[in-house]
Structure formats: structure tokens, C-alpha cells
């Protein structure tokens, strides 16, 4: 695949941002390439285009598959796996947010609930520490409930909500 200078900059930047988000740079670059690619690519094409080792590409694709950020497809007469990424930015963000919630927020909320249950019988933990743990648990419960209530809203509604921004606070009287 031939990359234009803009495409190269995009892929490099996405890799840098991936590192900041806790994702391996090569994995983020593979995702960026597949996001930009008009057609599915096989692993050798990805390795050649990005100039990274084939083994790195294989590991990166496995990670992207586990996040459901890429999918495998096949071509008639070719036994290789071809990979494609969703091209809809809303879908990409939805997948990332859902994955992070599942991997980070849900286990943290379970842990905080466990702590809160333990604190009911605990007499050693100072009251201000109890309050902080319970407050954090309540925050994560509210965040999760809010996310669950908006994640299934139609895209048009979400876009309107985003565009309204602070006007929503004025409408509800805050």
C-alpha cells in the first residue's frame, strides 16, 4: 500500500498517541493503517508498509482482534487472512470505550464494592478513609449508570447532546 505524506504523519501520530493511551506504538500504527486503508490488508502488506517485523504485526493483530478493533476476512483464491478495521469513527470510539470499561472500570467497581462490603464489618479503618472509598464507589456506579443509559441512544441524539455542551446544564438549572 502506498502511503501519502499525510497518511504517514497520521500513522506516526496515532502510534505516538497509542503510547500515551497505554497501547503499544506498533499496535496503534497497525490500527491506523487499517483504518485508513480502503481495502483489507494481509499481515505481510502491513509489515512491509509500516516497516515493522512480521512477528510484531502478528502480535499487534492479535491484540486488535481481542479489542474487536479489526476483523478477519478472506479473498477468493487466497488462503491468507486479510484484516480490516471499522472506518466509522463513532464505531471505533464505541468499541474502545466499551473495551476500556470492561477491562478497567468494571473490575475497579467490583473491587470498590468488595471494599465497601468489607468496611461494613471493619472497625480499624478510619471514618474519612471509609468515606473516600464509598464516595469513589458511588462515583464509579454513577458513571457506569450514565454510560449504560446513553450508549444505546441514537447517534443523532448523542451528537446533539455533544453540541449542546454547557447549554444542557442551563436547561436543567445548574
Describe the protein in words.
- The chain folds into two domains: 5-84, Arc Repressor Mutant, subunit A, CATH 1.10.10; 89-154.
- A three-stranded antiparallel β-sheet has the order 1-3-2.
- The protein has eight helices and three strands.
- The relative contact order is 0.07.
- α1 (5-20) packs across α2, α3 (43-50) packs across α4 (54-66) and α5 (89-119) packs antiparallel against α6.
- By secondary structure, the chain is mostly helical.
Task: Write down the secondary-structure element order.
Answer: HHEHHEEHHHH
User: Can you tell me the overall shape?
Assistant: extended
Strand order of the largest sheet: 1-3-2
Give the CA-CA distance, first to last residue: 52 Å
Residue-averaged pLDDT: 94
Annotated CATH architecture of the largest domain: Orthogonal Bundle
Q: Which SSEs are present, and which pair or pack?
A:
Blueprint: H1 5-20, H2 25-36, E1 41-42, H3 43-50, H4 54-66, E2 71-75, E3 78-84, H5 89-119, H6 127-150, H7 155-164, H8 167-171
Antiparallel strand pairs: 1-3, 2-3
Helix pairs in contact: 1-2, 2-4, 3-4, 5-6
Briefly, what is this?
By secondary structure, this protein is mostly helical.
Which terms would index this structure?
Arc Repressor Mutant, subunit A, mainly alpha, 3-stranded antiparallel beta sheet, 8 helices, extended, 2 domains
